[in-house]
C-alpha cells in the first residue's frame, strides 16, 4: 500500500468515527430532552447554534487549515467533539437551553472543522491518479459519511436505551478520543499547509467557478432541509400517526440509503455510456442535468398530494427517488469543488464552499418550521423544488472541468 492510499484510509476512518458520534449525539439530544419535558420549539433551538457556528467555522477553518495544516484542524475538531460530549454528562439541573446550545455550538464547530479537513485532505493525497480517481475518492468519503451518520442515529438511540444518556455520551467520547490519538500518530504533519501564510481576506474565493458552485450548493442543501428537518418528521408523526421510533427509523434509513447512492455515484453516472463518454469527468453540464431531474421530484410530490393521492405512498416513494437524485447532485458538487480548486488553496476553497453549504442548511432549517406551519408539507415541497431550480440557474455558469486550470499536484 502506497503512502497516499494509507493516509487516505486513515483520514476516512477518522471521519467515519467522528460522523457516528455526530449522528448519535443529535439523536441523544432530541430523545433525552424530549423526555425531560422540553417543548418541540426548545428542542429545535438547541440546534440553532450548531448550524450558525457551522457557517463561521467553514469560513475560518479553511484559512486556518492553510496556515497550520489540515491534519491539525481535523484533530482540533475531534478534540472539540470530545469536549462537547463530556459537557452534556453534567447533572440535569445544569442542562438549561443556553448551556446545551453552547455544547451544540462546540459540536457544530467540531463537525465542520472535521469535514472541511477530511475532504480537502483528499485533494492533497490523490497524487498523480487524475480526476477519475479524485471523483471516486470523494464519492466514497462523502457517501460513507452520510450512511454512517444515519447509523449514528440508530447507535445513539440504542445506547440511550441500554446504558442511559450519560453512559452513551461517555462511550462515544472515549471512542473518539482513541481515534484522535491513533490518527494523530499515523498521519504526517503539515498536510495542506501553504508555504506562505495566507491572509484572512483570501478565504473569499476570486475563482468564478467556485463562487457559482458555492451559491448553487446553498440552494441545493436548503432544498433538502426545508422538508427534512421539521416538516417531514412532524407530518409523519402528527398527520400519519407514526411512532417516534418509526419516524426516526425512516429518516435514518433515508440518510443511509442516500449515502450509499452517493458512494457509488461515479458508477451510476457511467451506466449506459460509451467507453469514450465514461472517461469524461463530471462538469457544469452534469450538475445542470441532475439539478433539473431533482427539481421535478418535489414538485411532482406536491402536485400528487394536492390531487389527493395517498400521502404515505407519495412521501415514501417520492423521497426515495429524491434521495437518489439528491445523492448524485451532492456527489457531483463535492467533486467539482476539488476539481475547480488550486492545489495550494484547496482548504480555503473547500472552507468557503462549505460555508455556503452550512448557510443553506440554516436557511432550510428555519424555513422548514415556518413553511410547514403556514403552508403544510405541500408548501415545503414546492419550496424545495424552487430551491433546486435556483441551484440549476446558478449552475448555468459552471464550466466543464477541462476548461479550468488543473491543480498542480506534487509528485
Automatic annotation (TrEMBL):
Q: List all membrane-crossing ranges.
A: 12-35, 47-70, 82-106, 163-187, 226-244, 250-269, 290-309, 315-340, 352-375, 381-398
Query: Which SUPFAM superfamilies does the protein's record reference?
Result: MFS general substrate transporter
The cross-references to PANTHER family, in alphabetical order and at most eight, read: MAJOR FACILITATOR SUPERFAMILY DOMAIN, GENERAL SUBSTRATE TRANSPORTER, MAJOR FACILITATOR SUPERFAMILY MFS_1
What is the protein named? Major facilitator superfamily MFS_1
What the entry lists under Pfam families is as follows:
MFS_1
- GO molecular function of the protein, one example? transmembrane transporter activity
| Source superkingdom | Bacteria
Q: Which UniProt keywords apply?
A: Membrane, Transmembrane, Transmembrane helix
Amino acid at each position: 500500500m502506497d503512502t497516499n492510499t494509507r493516509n487516505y484510509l486513515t483520514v476516512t476512518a477518522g471521519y467515519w468515527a467522528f460522523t457516528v458520534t455526530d449522528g448519535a449525539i443529535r439523536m441523544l439530544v432530541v430523545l433525552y430532552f424530549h423526555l425531560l419535558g422540553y417543548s418541540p420549539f426548545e428542542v429545535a433551538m438547541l440546534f440553532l447554534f450548531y448550524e450558525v457556528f457551522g457557517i463561521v467555522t467553514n469560513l475560518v477553518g479553511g484559512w486556518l487549515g492553510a496556515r497550520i495544516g489540515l491534519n491539525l484542524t481535523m484533530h482540533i475538531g475531534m478534540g472539540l467533539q470530545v469536549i462537547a460530549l463530556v459537557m452534556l454528562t453534567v447533572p440535569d439541573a445544569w442542562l438549561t437551553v443556553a448551556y446545551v446550545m453552547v455544547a451544540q455550538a462546540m459540536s457544530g464547530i467540531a463537525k465542520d472543522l472535521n469535514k472541511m479537513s477530511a475532504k480537502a485532505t483528499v485533494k492533497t493525497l490523490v497524487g498523480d491518479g487524475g480526476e477519475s480517481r479524485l471523483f471516486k475518492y470523494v464519492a466514497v468519503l462523502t457517501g460513507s459519511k452520510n450512511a454512517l451518520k444515519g447509523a449514528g442515529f440508530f447507535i445513539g438511540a440504542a445506547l440511550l436505551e441500554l446504558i442511559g444518556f450519560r453512559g452513551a455520551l461517555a462511550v462515544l467520547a472515549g471512542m473518539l478520543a482513541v481515534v484522535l490519538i491513533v490518527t494523530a500518530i499515523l498521519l504526517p504533519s503539515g498536510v495542506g499547509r501553504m508555504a506562505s501564510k495566507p491572509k484572512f481576506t483570501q478565504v473569499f474565493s476570486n475563482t468564478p467557478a467556485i463562487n457559482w458552485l458555492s451559491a448553487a450548493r446553498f440552494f441545493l442543501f436548503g432544498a433538502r432541509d426545508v422538508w427534512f428537518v421539521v416538516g417531514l418528521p412532524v407530518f409523519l408523526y402528527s398527520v400519519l400517526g407514526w411512532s417516534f421510533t418509526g419516524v426516526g427509523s425512516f429518516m435514518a434509513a433515508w440518510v443511509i440509503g442516500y449515502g450509499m447512492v452517493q458512494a457509488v455515484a461515479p458508477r451510476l453516472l457511467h451506466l449506459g455510456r460509451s467507453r469514450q463518454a465514461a472517461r469524461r469527468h463530471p462538469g457544469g453540464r452534469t450538475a445542470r442535468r441532475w439539478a433539473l431531474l431533482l427539481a421535478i421530484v418535489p414538485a411532482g410530490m406536491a402536485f400528487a398530494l394536492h390531487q389527493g393521492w395517498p400521502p404515505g405512498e407519495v412521501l415514501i416513494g417520492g423521497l426515495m427517488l429524491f434521495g437518489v437524485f439528491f445523492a448524485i447532485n451532492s456527489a457531483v458538487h463535492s467533486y467539482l469543488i476539488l476539481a475547480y480548486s488550486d492545489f495550494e488553496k484547496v482548504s480555503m476553497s473547500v472552507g468557503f464552499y462549505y460555508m455556503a453549504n452550512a448557510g443553506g442548511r440554516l436557511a432550510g432549517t428555519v424555513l422548514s418550521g415556518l413553511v410547514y406551519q403556514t403552508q403544510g408539507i405541500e408548501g415545503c415541497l414546492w419550496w424545495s423544488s424552487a430551491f433546486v431550480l435556483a441551484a440549476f440557474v446558478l449552475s448555468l455558469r459552471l464550466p466543464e472541468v477541462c476548461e479550468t486550470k488543473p491543480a498542480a499536484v506534487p509528485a
